[in-house]
Amino acid sequence: MGALSYDKTAGNFRRAVTAMRCEDKKFYPDYLFEILIVTIITIEIVFALALLFPPDIGRRINFNATYQPRPEWYFLWLYELVKYFPGKWMFIGTTILPLIVFLLITLAPFLEKTQDTSLRKRWRAVVIASILLVSAVILTIRAI
Amino acid sequence: MGKIFDYLDSRFVLKKPHKSFLERDLPANVNYFYCFGGITFILFLLLLSTGLMLSTYYVPSEKEAYQSIKFIDNKVYFGGVIRAVHKWSANLMVVCIVIHMLRVFVTGSYKKPRELNWVAGSVLLILTLGFGFTGYLLPWDQKAYWATVVGTSMAGTVPLIGKYLLILLRGGFDVNGITLLRFYSFHVLWLPLISLVFLWAHFHMIRQQGISGGL
Lengths: 144, 215
Prior knowledge:
By secondary structure, chain A is mainly α. Chain A has 6 helices and no strands.
């Protein structure tokens, strides 16, 4: 904090400005240092996981027996979703619903009309995002 | 800085063009949730470097793919670790992308003038899922093969273009060596090149617009 002068209103204003300047950090060196720390931690975590839990290679392919495979965990929601639309309705699960989700996510900044960033004023977006997130979690859990 | 750096800098000129980047101010109210975009990029770099190493031993052919993965795991120096790092970085990348997207959504950072940066990011999400889908087949083992049979047959149910999409993905009507080579090509050439374009756009817009002060 810089030197503060205490003539009431002007003093308060000056103090606020000084406090703001103090918090305004530069990319270099303040954040670059933190970025390097985060980089090192990230690499450490990846290597620790890789050494502790290496991926195993599965069995050789058996082309004759149809095998019920499981996709990567981040596709499980789709794998589960498709189960609810058997037969000729399958395209709803494989195309229509994923397309709607993709468009809702991609076009979010254009669909939200307000420029306000407070979550309370963006409650519609918050509701839609929560529904998408909760459905993805529920579908994933059901697929496990 | 040091003599070696000064020698290089007076010829290669590295410091001057990056001065404004290094000395720019950042908003005061950022927190550690703002790190996840950067962490995703670190993971991308890890994937790129381990992927380059894996590609020197991996053989994308029906007969040799499975054997070459076993060779990487058991015979190549650090081969198993490099493959494990590749796999783990890929999984963590999806987690970090989700957290990054939630952060941007909660802080409303995608609002004007940053709408297109969000769109570029959402394309990068799809590309990441494409990397995951194509990479899953490459070990050419039981679960990889049948997961691709199911995954590509889902693409076949897309109205109107389904049949063509299926043939485009499989390189025919069945999943075989042609599919494997195709997925390898997507995984190591097409997707990385397209990703570089969108990563450049993503970072260019961040540099031009600065990061959003958020809440």
